[in-house]
Amino acid sequence: MRTDAIKQIGFFNEKYGDIYSLSLPFNKIIIASHPAYARQVLTDNNKNYTKSLAYQVVKLLLGNGILTSEGDFWRKQRRLIQPAFHKQKIAALATMMVQRIQQEADSLDAYAAGNQPVDIAGMMTSLTLDIISRAIFSAGVAKAPLIADLITLLNQYVTDKINQPFRLPASIPTPFNIGERRALETLDNIIYEIIDTRRRENTPKNDLLSMLLEARDEETGEAMDNRQLRDEVMTIFIAGNETTANAMAWTLYLLSQHPQEEQKMMDEIDEKMNSGLQPGYDTMPAFAYVRQVIEESMRLYPPAWVVGRRAIDDDELGDYRVPRGTNVLIPIFFLHRSSLYWEQPERFMPERFAADKRSGIDKYVYFPFGAGPRMCIGNNFAMMEMQLILVLLYRRFRFRLPENFVVAPKALVSLRPANGMMMRVEKRQP
Predict the structure, then answer these.
(1) In 3-state terms, what secondary structure has residue 207?
(2) How many structural domains does the chain have?
(3) Residue 155 maps to a domain
């Protein structure tokens, strides 16, 4: 499938309904756009499914980390990593997040004063990369901009391989293969250098890397070797940066197009902060409408727009046979926008996620962080970070698209704005 996969799947959904197959050379794909099928594949019969063929390509970047590993090894790694994302650990990172977001807000003053557009998508990528760097390594990584460029480049390489899997072997020095190998080697060298330095220092710190270094398998007592640490660090980097940055870019875009909802959110922020409430882990529940805005944004533009699995043995989804080895794609994007499950599905309505309505939302109709045993381990981390970003930025600014700027989704590994997200920064008075 090409990067216009959203248009393709949308066309086929309208033509064939909520389940159908696509035959590709040496491969068969089933598209399943129904919550019952999502439940069966991701939860009820999840042991019959491994990650889809596309994840084998993603392994190029992430290695055998928690996102791509399978079976007993995945379960062991999940147990090792889970404590790093307990609520008390996330709470300890809130102060760092607030300080870093405030610095980013300060940098926006110049753009507001000069009425100069800024690429909010790029800004959010840099911000979230720095935050996850500090969360993993206690301090920002000196080569963070280079890491961001390398991850963007490798993301494109991975997407190209998924879209055009029939290429010359990696051992043949084509320009594509050489570029991919060099980018990966450079990125690996940076990560391994950080891990080696921390091992030599042998001084525990209050960050995710220390927790990973100290983690021990409860049965064997073994620690992770450098390769596994690298894979888990890369997975956290990607999951804690790419998807969060894209979610924020889409959220600021939607707010710029819906001034009524934007004003309601700013009123909540001003009311809470004028009463003395300061943004932090314990106070985020008070900013309920801010969270609803994020949840509605991820409904319309889910960063993880599709989830794929591969059948180990034959299965049936309703009356539809799934032969072993078949890749099943569940397009989250279309479940999130289906008129079968949502009233006015194309409309931006944060009220859908108000406390009195939340329980009525099927968790297999809305699942931006995935579902089942492999649901995103960092969902609470991401939600706190996104809420803090909105509260602290909209306390001081609002954002507007320049005239004639074209916004369009680009379905890579995650759902990116195809042209970035150029926006004017407007100073406001709370």
Answers:
(1) coil
(2) 1
(3) yes
